[in-house]
């Protein structure tokens, strides 16, 4: 075999840096290729292709990291773990990417390769743990938006000019009708915000955001000192042309579309940091890390989140804000802890599960990975997986540290002044639904129960059966949206066997404490759900009135049949009342 080692060993560090850079460029090229073909899939209604692309883009990063590591093994013949050598590699890599418009994402790729090769945590001496400058990459030459001054034209002319920037290779259903609908709703919005003014301005992103069966035109409407989002969801229904489904102008509607609980967008973006800057102008409550996630750079979002975490630790008092057990009923599979000011939870798989849990740690990991790759339809929490995460020892309350060591000793190690956790998921914190209902007034409780039922139906439409429908496994977000977050028992709807409970044939069968009929491993009896969810009372009665079909096997079997037939069901990330043509 011909050696791939460099002819000049003194330049090995440069060769290694170049191989990592080549791996990054391959990743970024393939990433861009996937996002560029999203428009073609929308135009041709290739919804299965869109979903396949979304899944493949998530696995793309780890594939390129693994391949780059393999190439480094061939190049170096034996891995050089010497920190001095890797500092030289990092410096050579930093020099090559100094003027990249995706420099920080390239730095994240370098970190991933190094960690994959040596299986260690964050090493400040070798990796780009602390950003090399602003989180922003090298600035672009041309703007990422086109700007329209509303004082120069009518609203209908403005909407028409916006659409002219997106020449889809497909017919419109009725373009002029949609222009009228958008202009009328926009005019109403402007009148309720002080009326038109000569300085009113619209900035619309060149990039279209694609997800599932919808394309989103995204921009911002500037009125005086106020900035409002501007989003037009476009559909391409069967046997019809492209149409505008809604106009969204309220911040809460837009935050929901860019939610942490939804799948990542496919969007052709040249300079991600400029896109993040733009989006944050009308979503200031979103962390920078969340916005990188939303546009598909999940690994870099994780890097940014880790930096946010380090800043939080350095700027807060550990005695006033320690890690404590998360509120709610303790889970049998996960130990969950949190810190009050960060609004995040840390979930560690226990070493042993109490009966009746029969899953294994490997199964739990597989199901978290399934959720990462699946369409979350705004109803499943996204999470960052950290391996070998080091947290300050002084941050842990005595009770939290003791519970962590007792429940997951194989995953926890104390080193000097740090607690090293080998495998931990980090998610947005929510109020468990069971706790929320204890303090909510009747109107808020009923709203939460309605949304709980909708969440179950929307998960079913995405081919997810939660397995355990207990209220404690669902959370209520800041905007009062119900989201599922306990994945150890989820299954695909198409893998389940939904059955009606057979009628007893004798009095003895009717009085039996155990089922008198055969129950297979994937058999599910929806009629039994109410008894597990809550005691009889007004809440259960209300849930039955609003969503009684979720307790009927026929509902689930109908969903299953449609999924097996290949149907991709519509789940809209905005309220039905906002749609123009229902």
TrEMBL record:
Limits of the Isocitrate dehydrogenase kinase/phosphatase (AceK) regulatory domain: 17-316
The keyword Kinase belongs to this UniProt entry's keyword annotation: yes
Annotated GO biological process: glucose metabolic process; glyoxylate cycle; tricarboxylic acid cycle
GO cellular component labels: cytoplasm
Domain Isocitrate dehydrogenase kinase/phosphatase (AceK) kinase: 321-575
Pfam families linked to this entry: AceK_kinase, AceK_regulatory
GO molecular function terms noted in the UniProt entry: [isocitrate dehydrogenase (NADP+)] kinase activity; AMP binding; ATP binding; phosphoprotein phosphatase activity; protein serine/threonine kinase activity
Alphabetized InterPro entries for the sequence: AceK_kinase, AceK_regulatory, Isocitrate_DH_AceK
Family matches, as PANTHER family: ISOCITRATE DEHYDROGENASE KINASE_PHOSPHATASE, PTHR39559
Record NCBIfam families: PRK02946.1 (NF002804)
Record protein name field: Isocitrate dehydrogenase kinase/phosphatase
Organism: Neolewinella aquimaris
